[in-house]
Amino acid sequence: MKAALLLVCFVCAASLTFAQGLYSVHSPNGVDVWAVGRSGNIFHSYDGGVTWASDGQGTYHLRGVFSFGSSVWIVGDNGTCLTSTNSGVNWTTQQIGGANALRAVTFMSATTGWVVGQNGIIFKTINGGAAWVQQASAAS
């Protein structure tokens, strides 16, 4: 009984430590799961969150993640946008909108998507994130 209680406490403490500093999670199907957070932390699970692999990409806080097929887009502070077309094996980094903090990203297809950020900034892509065009916003 004492050993079981100790194990439960250890698992709970490990889970809380792992979860600190995450800002966004996305899963297109409940099996392939992405989570991003502080200091460039990226976590990826291929089994619905049972096990996780981690990857660090830079030092900026990553605030939003979206995946579509094998493509993944991640946005964060200082206009950071990371893109992968092979499920995170390789990443391309670009800056969108100068020093604006980007907060969220979503796509409706593998080519068309939007990024939103600080001060009501909105960007749209029609080529999978290779180029982004600022859109008018009532908040900006």
Provide structural commentary.
The structure is a single chain. This protein starts with a helix and ends in a 5-residue tail after the last strand. The protein has 1 helix and 12 strands; from the N terminus they run H-E-E-E-E-E-E-E-E-E-E-E-E. Helix content is 13%, strand content 43%. It is mainly beta and 140 residues long. The relative contact order is 0.12. The chain has a 4-stranded antiparallel sheet, with no helix packed on it. Residues 1-17 have low confidence and may be disordered. The longest helix has 18 residues, at 2-19. A hairpin with a 3-residue loop joins strand 6 and strand 7 (80-84). It is globular, with a radius of gyration of 17 Å. The protein has one helix at residues 2-19, and strands spanning 22-26, 33-37, 41-45, 53-56, 62-68, 71-76, 80-84, 92-95, 102-107, 113-117, 121-125, 133-135. The chain has a single domain, classed as Neuraminidase, CATH 2.120.10.30.
- The SS-based structural class is mainly beta
Rg estimate, integer Å: 17 Å
Order of strands in the sheet with most strands: 1-2-3-4
For the sheet with most strands, the description reads: 4 strands, antiparallel
Separation of the first and last Cα atoms: 59 Å
Number of structurally distinct domains: 1
Residue windows where pLDDT falls under 50 for at least 5 positions: 1-17
